[in-house]
Design goal:
Layout (H helix, E strand, L loop, with lengths): L9 E5 L3 H13 L3 E5 L2 H11 L3 E5 L7 H9 L8 E6 L6 H4 L7 E4 L4 H10 L6
Parallel strand pairs: 1-2, 1-3, 3-4, 4-5
Helix pairs in contact: 2-3
Length: 130
């Protein structure tokens, strides 16, 4: 489903690094989107169930519940067939620790983010390739 650049999306930012999560959420909010933040995997699963985001920016390497497990649980829920789940990590997508989870994500963003790419992706709400 495409969204107009002026249409607000519900975006969930999940990252155990509070500063990174808060900064990304602030930026996405400034772009005009409704944002919620989860600081761990279980909180992301719980919040997503209530918030039903269009887009989930999900840190892969969170303690407790790995971001891949969060994505797996969300993909198994009926309300998330059309949600875009974007992996975020300081590691490249071909890192062996991430490859096993790759099929669960619509794209992978390496930190620090390419902000133009991210803004464009949210503005058009289209899938992009790894």
């Amino acid at each position: 489903m495409l969204h107009s650049p002026w249409e607000s999306l519900r975006v969930l930012v999940a990252d155990d690094n509070r500063d990174a999560a808060d900064a990304l959420a602030t930026l996405v909010h400034l772009w005009g989107h409704d944002v919620r933040i989860a600081y761990n995997g279980q909180a992301a699963v719980n919040l997503a169930g209530d918030f039903v985001p269009h887009v989930i920016m999900l840190d892969i390497q969170m303690p407790g519940m790995h971001g891949g497990e969060v994505a797996r649980q969300l993909r198994a829920q009926p309300g998330f067939q059309h949600a875009k789940i974007y992996a975020t990590s300081a590691n490249e997508p071909d890192d062996p620790r991430l490859v096993a989870w790759r099929h669960l994500f619509d794209a992978h963003f390496v930190k620090p983010y390419n902000l133009r790419q991210l803004e464009g992706l949210l503005a058009n709400h289209v899938s992009c390739e790894f």
